Amino acid sequence: MISTGLTAAAIAVLIPAQTANLTYVDTWTAGAAYPARVAPIPSGGGGGGGGVLYVTDPPNEAVVEYDATGAVVGTYVIPEGPVGIAVHDDGRVFVSRQDNQVGVYDATFTLLATVDPTPLAFEGPNDLAFDPGTGELYVVNSEAHQILVFSETAPGAWTLVRSWGMEGTGMGQLAMPQAIALDPLLGRVYVADTDNFRVQAFDTNGVFQFSFGYRILFTPDKEEAWFARGEGIAVDACGHVYLTDALMGTLRAFDSTGTELDSLHLPLVGFGAGPGALRLPADVAIDSGGNVYIANTNNG
User: Fold this and answer.
1) In a domain, 169, yes or no
2) 26 closest CA partner among 278, 285, 276
3) Is residue 300 part of a domain?
4) Could you tell me the residue range of the domain that residue 238 belongs to?
5) What CATH number does the domain containing 156 carry?
6) pLDDT tens-digit map of 262-284
7) How does 85-120 read in b/e, with b if 16+ C-beta sit within 10 Å?
8) Read out DSSP for 194-249?
């Protein structure tokens, strides 16, 4: 079974691994006032406070660390404004920032280095993800409508090894992408192509595979079948894909072909207040134990 939790806009979901049925479990309300991105801390990669989860809070220029009960065990100030966050297997923390940089930090959030995107430039770097097989770092370069991929070519030195994407509506083109997730078993990269109201699937070299989602899909029984604003995306160990739609207040589950399996939402309008309801869900992440965490930004 799979469970979830999060902060002052954080919601927990219990998801049986084979069916991806979504069931609310718990809400964490301490800590981050405006949670944006969520990153599980790998087992053995221990955070500075021994926690299990990092959450970025951009308006408050902070990263908040939680333990498994939802208690805050660390708050770290990043004055440049943290946005996206991902944790390397060795415990280093990578944070995209509002000053168009990606910083590399130790577990106490001492800055170790920054990632150099030469010959390109960071333009609104957003969500981050690691390929667990190669160790490569994927960066959603939102305002440039790109995906950038980096490899650690020397200790602490990250080199841009490939990129893809250009602004447009065609297959393989992107419009303000917000989030990224990898399925290492299929060698697949899923991108929340937000302003095109869809998810696109690529191989790890950036070759387009397929897409799914529409802004409005009219069916007799699914008024919620919208991709109004896909903000967060994650893949579980079974290859299920989870997408948060901030405007519709939904978390959706899909199989690896893009077929919808289930959704968690408030009927009719999709928004709600209080435990178990979603309001502007910004991100979704899954840890190694199958716990699914949602940054439920406007419901604390």
Assistant:
1) yes
2) 276
3) no
4) 6-288
5) 2.120.10.30
6) 655 433 234 555 555 666 678 89
7) bbbeeebbbbbbbeeebbbbbebebeeeeebebeee
8) GGGTEEEEEETT--EEEEE--SB---TT-TT-B-S-EEEEEE-TT--EEEEETTTT
Q: Are 82 and 65 in contact (CB under 8 A)?
A: no
- Residue 296 inside a domain? The answer is no
Q: Which tens digits make up the pLDDT trace of 237-258? A: 889 999 888 777 778 888 899 9
Q: Is the peptide bond before 42 cis (omega within 30 degrees of 0)?
A: no
Q: Which tokens in the block code for residue 233?
A: 């995306």
Find the range with the poorest average confidence among 61-65, 108-112, 224-228: 224-228
Write the pLDDT tens digit of every residue in 33-80.
Answer: 788 899 999 875 566 667 889 999 999 999 999 988 888 999 999 999
Our count of domains for the chain comes to 1
Helix residue spans in 86-222 (DSSP H): none
User: Does 295 fall in a domain?
Assistant: no
Structure tokens at 289: 């134990």
